[in-house]
Design a protein that fits this description.
Layout (H helix, E strand, L loop, with lengths): L12 H13 L8 H30 L3 E5 L9 H8 L2 H10 L4 H4 L12 H15 L4 E6 L7 E5 L2 E5 L12 E2 L5 E5 L2 E6 L5 E6 L2 E13 L6 E10 L12 H17 L10 H28 L7 H4 E6 L6 H12 L4 H11 E4 L10 E3 H7 L1 H21 L4 H7 L2 E2 L2 E3 H7 L3 E4 L2 H11 L1 H6 L4 E3 L6 H7 L2 H11 L2 H4 L14 H25 L9 E6 L8 H17 L8 E6 L7 H18 L8 E6 L4 H7 L5 E4 L11 H7 L3 E4 L5 H8 L5 E2 L4 H10 L4 H7 L1 H8 L10 H8 L7 H20 L1 H14 L5 H13 L24
Parallel strand pairs: 1-2, 1-11, 2-10, 11-12, 12-16, 16-17, 18-19, 18-21, 19-20, 21-22, 22-23
Antiparallel strand pairs: 3-4, 5-9, 6-9, 7-8, 9-10, 13-15, 14-15
Helix pairs in contact: 1-2, 2-3, 3-18, 6-33, 8-10, 10-11, 10-13, 12-13, 19-21, 21-32, 22-23, 22-29, 28-29
């Protein structure tokens, strides 16, 4: 099938824009607010998107291609207007034509709220991946939840994090399409059991419970410089229209009616309900099954309608589960194949296993998701029955392989100690399990899931994460993108590995001067943002040292702020000590129930308050906390950074993607040998990053032998002891909980152990910054090496090694490239 071209023709854009404005608002452009102009522009751009969206879906249907469905509880999309314009290739034309109408595009872009569909790295990775699938011409779609409120909007009050509901849908989501005709029902509660038929066979009985209407909202995912437009499907929970009655109800019936209505509305109300209570935990489980069941039902129904037989589904469908939140896909597919399609267990299980691949994102045992058996039985009883049978049959195989080894059986059982272990279900029910960085995958196979890796030789593999250079370089840093075009041609835009062509220019003084000008401009922009939003004046010529990520003890923001306290104390009390003028930036949210993380935020703000007002250190040090850090703020932050703080405890960070965003924009990594830092260091070399601290094997050894003592570190290092004591001596207020956490809870993430190494590493990286030519050379080498960390490379590996799909040419601008063997370009 041939699909007509092409990049959108823009000759009628102004007419479309004016007509759309009048259709939506019945007024002239001059009478519209910025918000209304933004909505008008988004609606106009959707007209250009929709043509290729229809053609893409028709091509997938007519050619009967295998499609990937990427299930993730988060998709942290960020604003879509700018990236859609970039990917369509019409940004400059739109900007020019809007200017002719008296409209400034740059003023409209901030009117779009960040979609509240994610929190951190997991959701941003998923967003990068669906962008890459579309841009590579691969048939791949996303599946998630349409949260009415995001995680929360972060405010700071008296130094404390305050959580305000993130009502991101207040002015609607311009890019979504409601598809009520694609709705499905999801069954919760009741009583499920097998009853015997007259002929002795068994049949399923599922009595009682309640059903929830799942309504999909589709968001187009626009490929870059091609004609592919894939789909992100978001599921919304709604009360079925049939659930209404005109009968006179008793008071009890009215109460039950309202309870049902509220419970349905709550399913998709919040991202990550607080799980400190039974009710909150139960709501998370219900959320997960809701979007899994809705998504799987929709996918299976679609392909069966197209004439695909149940046993043929793996030839058309690949379900990829991003971490364990969608692990119930395993049991839900089995439910549909066995209960609804009448398949016998064995062929249904083989079909299910062939359809599912699983990405693991954590090696923290406490973060491996599990649910109480009682809760699973109560809310999804049929699913529990299926998991129980999967486990029974799996353990038969384990005992057959390892007779008499009941300890191994216990360690591998999906249902154990009153809990359903979702990572184990994901491994058993999939054909592929991958980690997300080289060191993470090694630890996964050697430590966290060693028994499963031994049991399933060849199933475990590595796919190092990546980021979309289209958002994090082309869209977020157009000044650098233009400099790269001028220096190495535009080929890198389609083939990011070609960024390696920049490496020889690291020795070119003319290029380094231009690179410095780009960095200076981006630092000016971030400084202006801080002046507007934090009311803090910072020096753009100071070192910009930045740590932005979810606030968590293992990410060690606490070590960073303790080091700042150390520097500040020495500046105050040691006349011989001085520092390069430096501005420290922090950003990130703490989970509402995570007390230590919230206290860390309070400490950062207390230190900032004291340091920023002290005339003795004026011009030498500032501390800034970037409130409500998210994708859009990140687009300002990553291009402005000089130092990228990646200081998590070795062996704890699966991969990290912030490190890649900083690297792609020319920042130098200050980090541990953890996650993707290892591969960054491998590519750029130790001369172009600064590595410190315990290695993963040393951390694991300390955990095993129990020989680490935080008190020993405290007692043996006077400088460290002084700053730890300042947590309670009134210098910054009372932070006794943090001191207690470090000392009496034995510093579980080795902050004190690594402190001295971190101090030395920080001195080294600031020393390097002072040598400007060498620093700019390192910056260029980092940019040149960052092409390997494009999510295009990652997705090509998934497509080739796991999904077994190929690009589909939706004939337009350029022919999609075949999947080829990959290698770091020029490194």
């Amino acid at each position: 099938m041939t699909i007509e071209p092409k990049r959108p023709q823009m000759k009628d854009f102004k007419d479309r824009f004016i007509i759309t404005a009048r259709t939506l608002y019945g007024r002239d452009l001059t009478d519209l607010s910025k918000e209304e102009l933004y909505q008008t522009l988004a609606a106009t751009v959707k007209q250009y998107v929709s043509e290729n969206w229809v053609k893409t879906n028709r091509a997938y249907k007519d050619r009967g291609v295998k499609q990937v469905y990427y299930f993730s509880v988060e998709f942290l999309l960020g604003r879509l207007l700018n990236t859609n314009l970039v990917n369509l290739g019409i940004r400059r034309e739109v900007e020019e034509q809007l200017k002719e109408l008296g409209v400034d595009l740059e003023e409209l872009i901030p009117e779009e709220r960040d979609a509240g569909l994610g929190n951190g790295g997991l959701g941003r990775l998923a967003a990068c991946f669906i962008d890459s699938m579309a841009s590579l011409g691969l048939p791949g779609n996303g599946c998630s939840i349409r949260y009415r409120y995001g995680l929360f909007e972060q405010h700071i009050l008296d130094g404390n994090q305050v959580e305000i509901p993130d009502n991101w849908l207040k002015n609607a989501f311009a890019w979504e399409y409601r598809k009520p005709d694609k709705s499905v029902h999801v069954h919760f509660g009741g009583n499920a059991y097998m009853a015997e038929n007259e002929d002795g066979s068994l049949k399923l009985v599922h009595e009682g419970g309640y059903k929830v209407l799942a309504v999909p909202y589709d968001v187009p995912v626009v490929g870059y410089d091609n004609s592919t437009v894939n789909t992100l499907r978001l599921w919304n929970s709604e009360v079925d229209e049939d659930f209404q009655t005109n009968m006179v109800m008793t008071e009890e019936q009215v109460a039950a009616h309202h309870q049902y209505y509220d419970s349905v509305q709550n399913i998709t109300k919040f991202l990550y309900p607080n799980d400190n209570t039974y009710e909150g935990r139960a709501l998370r489980l219900v959320q997960e099954y809701f979007f899994v069941s809705a998504g799987i039902q929709s996918i299976v129904q679609h392909h069966l309608k197209e004439g695909v037989k149940p046993v043929q589904l793996p030839d058309r469908v690949e379900i990829h589960i991003n971490d364990t939140h969608p692990a119930l896909c395993v049991a839900e597919i089995m439910r549909i194949l066995v209960d609804e399609q009448g398949m016998d267990w064995e062929p249904a299980w083989e079909t299910t296993r062939r359809m599912i691949a699983y990405t693991n994102h954590t090696i923290l045992p406490e973060a491996l998701e599990k649910w109480p058996v009682e809760m699973v039985k109560r809310f999804i009883p049929r699913i529990y029955m299926i998991i129980e049978e999967i486990n029974r049959r799996f353990l038969i195989d384990v005992r057959r392989r390892y007779p008499g080894d009941e300890e191994r059986v216990r360690a591998m059982s999906i249902i154990q100690d009153g809990s359903v272990h979702m990572a184990r279900l994901s491994v058993v029910g999939s054909h592929s399990v991958n980690g997300v960085a080289k060191i993470h995958s090694e630890i996964l196979c050697r430590e966290t899931m060693q028994k499963f890796s031994d049991f399933y030789p060849g199933k475990f593999n590595n796919k190092t994460n990546g980021i979309t250079h289209r958002r994090w370089l082309i869209a977020a840093n157009p000044q650098l993108a233009d400099l790269l075009d001028e220096t190495i041609s535009t080929d890198w835009r389609k083939t990011p590995e070609r960024l390696a062509d920049l490496k020889p220019f690291a020795d070119d003084s003319c290029f380094r001067d231009k690179l410095e000008l780009v960095k200076d401009k981006r630092k000016d922009e971030l400084a202006a943002y801080v002046a507007r939003n934090n009311d803090i004046i910072i020096d753009p010529e100071s070192v910009f040292d930045i740590q932005v990520k979810r606030i968590h003890s293992y990410k060690r923001q606490l070590m960073n702020i303790l080091h700042i306290m150390y520097q500040y104390d020495r500046l105050k009390n040691d006349p011989s000590y001085d520092v390069q003028p430096i501005t420290y930036f922090f950003g990130g949210k703490a989970a509402p129930g995570y007390y230590i993380a919230k206290e860390t935020i309070r400490l950062i703000n207390a230190v900032a308050e004291k340091v920023n007002k002290d005339p003795l250190v004026r011009g030498r040090m500032k501390v800034v906390f970037l409130v409500n850090f998210g994708v859009s703020v990140g687009e300002l932050v990553y291009p402005a950074a000089d130092i990228s703080e990646q200081i998590s405890t070795a062996s704890k960070e699966a991969s990290g993607t912030g490190n890649m965003k900083f690297m792609m924009n020319g920042a130098i990594t200050l980090g541990t040998m953890d996650g993707a830092n290892v591969e960054i260091c491998d590519i750029v070399g130790h001369d172009n990053c600064v590595i410190f601290g315990l290695r993963a094997h040393e951390v694991i050894s300390f955990y095993r032998n129990g020989m680490y003592s935080a008190w020993d570190e405290y007692n043996s290092n006077a400088s460290l002891r002084r700053v730890v004591d300042q947590l309670t001596d009134g210098t910054y207020g009372d932070f006794g909980s943090l001191r207690d956490y470090l000392l009496n809870h034995n510093d579980e993430f080795f902050i004190l152990k690594d402190f001295e190494a971190y101090r030395g590493a920080h001195e080294e990286i600031v020393r390097r910054y002072s040598q400007r030519d060498a620093w700019l050379k390192s910056s260029a080498i980092n940019i040149a090496g960052s092409g390997f960390f494009s999510s295009d490379r990652t997705i090509r590996e998934y497509a080739r090694d796991i999904w077994h799909i190929s690009p589909l040419e939706i004939q337009g601008t350029k022919k999609a490239k075949p999947i080829e063997p990959l290698r770091p370009y020029g490194f």
